[in-house]
Write a structure and sequence with these properties.
By secondary structure, the chain is mainly beta. It has one domain (about 15-110): Jelly Rolls, CATH 2.60.120.10. The chain contains 1 helix and 10 strands; from the N terminus they run αββββββββββ. The longest helix has 4 residues, at about 5-10. It is globular. The chain starts with 5 loop residues before the first helix and ends in a 24-residue tail after the last strand. Bound molecules: (2~{S})-4-acetamido-2-azanyl-butanoic acid.
Length: about 130
């Protein structure tokens, strides 16, 4: 059994900060669960290009207002509290935050810990682990 709190994890290397977001990675590859689980804050008035070619991700909105645009077909999906979006096709997309967004994110395969987006908005399969 493992128990962690967001409040404690935020004070450690589990909180990874990028240009448009920060993300506290509460459950990682090292926990051997087959997925990782993160609480992510997307900063207000930002647009982030994302393309997870190596990962599947589902994202549940806890707080805030925004939208996703899928790049291949130009479709726009509004995001509000209660919305779950599921990137089941490695969908290349733009994530727009109108206000600050709080998101709960699940990744398969799990992230190792220290990943930040590469040039096309994705993560490599290998990365430095957080082991605390
Ligand atoms: C929604 C999304 O993927 N945002 C980028 C950060 C990511 N959730 C992460 O690395 O935790």
């Amino acid at each position: 059994m493992i128990v962690r709190t967001l409040q404690e994890a935020e004070k450690t290397a589990r909180r990874v900060v990028s240009e448009n977001w920060d993300s506290t990675r509460l459950l990682l590859k090292g926990d051997d669960m087959g997925f990782s689980f993160h609480i992510t804050t997307i900063y207000a008035s930002t647009e982030t290009p994302i393309w997870y070619q190596n990962h599947l991700e589902s994202v549940y909105c806890i707080e805030g207002k925004g939208e996703i645009e899928t790049v291949n077909d130009g479709k726009i999906y509004p995001i509000k509290p209660g919305t779950l979006y599921i990137l089941n096709k490695h969908d290349k997309h733009l994530l727009r935050a109108k206000t600050q967004l709080k998101l709960a994110c699940v990744f398969n395969p799990p992230l190792h810990g220290k990943e930040v987006h590469d040039g096309i908005g994705g993560y490599p399969l290998e990365a430095e682990e957080i082991t605390d």
